[in-house]
Design a protein that fits this description.
By secondary structure, the chain is an alpha/beta fold. The protein has 15 helices and 21 strands. The strands form four sheets. It has a seven-stranded parallel beta sheet, sandwiched between helices. Strand 8 (about 195) and strand 9 (about 200) form a beta hairpin. It is elongated.
Length: about 450
């Protein structure tokens, strides 16, 4: 890893728990800072793909994820360095509650939690608190979060859903009793809600013009309600960030110049920016293809990446594009490398909720009553264009569809869970398809291996 060593100004926004309004506050803050002329770099703790879509709109810049479970703790500071290049301030949105991390972790600060990431970044933390229904009790809550793990620097509070000026006065007094400055008080309003579905918010790319309007509304409110100078000053108080910036050129070696088609658009919007950066650094010419619109793969396509997303919301339109489905089926049958994750797996199957899909895998998928969610420590079960058999990785499942067991294809992964040993995914010829989301920055060798396979 090589790169700049100047430490970026940075601040982490956390909360006592989920549902406190972090995404609304952080998205509005990104927009307000940008509106006043700051170059702002957005980040999200954890594996979530949805919040960063709104961050990107607000900041006018690629939003990136910081997940120690998926990439390793040693890569968090370098990835922030990399994503902060040219920015005046970096803003990190946390996940769940400040101290909520991977279940079963026995560290003093749970591995993968927002507190863990704040420590790795040596960054101050602002606590976003939903103030609806409380007043003086805020002091006890803030005191508890400040004192629970003193090595995590909780340095301020942003009040959300404040009911009135009198309510704000009482809350500010409570925060003062707890020794924390109030950086802003966002009033209670219903205008900032973003539509949700079974996996959380509707993605920004799907929400289109409504997403733009929602981000503008968040920006307007935060601009009026938050002390932006105080936030910037707090970000500048962060310590020296250890180590150089992450550099894809230090992770992979150019192999050639194959064309790699990467699916995108409304149905396939779940991907990490570092994936494309690694593909291009390894020599690939990356071309975007939208399965909702494009009827052909790009010319000279040698490899195909089908990321996650919400194909179940677009099954009828995806099915109607028979020309592309037929071409992808033939492409996969030829033995060419295909990397499909979650939504990509559903698209490669025979059908999704009764709608015909590509038919490259003998699998049918349908919506299920239960959300499957969680990290997995997995072992590559079968040699593939991505992984050597026996390779160990950490990945993340996040879906509410289920597939039938298939017809004898080799599994992509083995892992052990509460219900015992588990085999998941499919390897067939050059196809590696799985529900498991992985972060290529955590295993860059898989990207180099994929590009090498594309050159065969």
């Amino acid at each position: 890893m090589v790169g700049t060593t100047q430490s970026p100004a940075r601040v982490v926004f956390a909360a006592p728990g989920s549902g406190q309004g972090k995404t609304t506050a952080v998205t509005g803050l990104l927009g307000a800072l940008r509106r006043r002329g700051d170059r702002v770099a957005p980040f999200k703790v954890g594996p979530d793909y949805i919040d960063p879509g709104y961050h990107r709109i607000a900041a006018g810049r690629t939003a990136r994820n910081l997940d120690p479970v998926l990439v390793g703790a040693d890569r968090i500071a370098p990835l922030l360095h990399h994503g902060s290049a040219g920015a005046d301030i970096s803003v990190v949105e946390g996940v769940m509650g400040l101290f909520d991390g991977r279940i079963g972790a026995d560290e003093e600060v749970a591995f993968g939690s927002t507190a863990h990431v704040a420590q790795l970044l040596d960054a101050p933390v602002v606590l976003v608190v939903d103030a609806k229904g409380q007043s003086h009790s805020l002091a006890a809550l803030l005191h508890g979060f400040r004192s629970y793990r003193p090595q995590v620097r909780v340095a301020g509070v942003l009040l959300n859903r404040v009911g009135s000026e009198r309510h704000e006065d009482v809350l500010r007094s409570a925060a003062e009793d707890a020794g924390l400055p109030v950086l802003g008080a966002v009033p209670r309003t219903d205008d900032l809600e973003v539509p949700s579905r079974h996996l959380g918010l509707v993605t920004a790319v799907e929400h289109g013009a409504d997403a733009l309007r929602a981000v503008e509304a968040m920006t307007d409110v935060v601009e009026r309600s938050v002390d932006l100078d105080a936030v910037a000053a707090l970000a500048r108080s962060a310590g020296e960030l250890p180590g150089p910036a992450w550099d894809p050129a230090a992770e992979v070696t150019p192999q050639g110049k194959p064309v790699v088609a990467v699916a995108g658009g409304h149905a396939f919007s779940f991907g990490y920016a570092e994936h494309v950066e690694l593909l291009e650094t390894a020599g690939a010419e990356v071309v975007l293809v939208d399965p909702l619109r494009d009827e052909r793969l790009p010319e000279r396509t040698a490899g195909l990446v089908l990321p996650g997303g919400f194909p179940e919301q677009h099954a009828t339109a995806l099915s109607a594009n028979t020309a592309l489905r037929s071409e992808i089926r033939a492409f996969a049958a030829s033995g060419a490398p295909v990397h499909a994750e979650c939504g990509g797996l559903l698209y490669l199957g025979e059908e999704l909720d009764g709608e015909p899909m590509c038919g490259a895998l003998p699998v049918r998928a349908a919506m299920a009553p239960r959300l499957v969610l969680g990290y997995r420590d997995a072992v590559a079960a079968t040699e593939s264009p991505l992984f050597a058999e026996g390779t160990r990785i950490s990945g993340h499942e996040f879906h509410r569809t289920a597939t039938d067991p298939g017809h004898g294809d080799a599994p992509a992964w083995f892992w052990r869970g509460p219900a015992g040993a588990h085999r998941e995914g499919f390897v067939r010829g050059g196809v590696h398809a799985s529900y498991l989301h992985t972060h290529p920055a955590g295993h860059p060798g898989s990207v180099e291996r994929f590009v090498m396979r594309c050159l065969r």
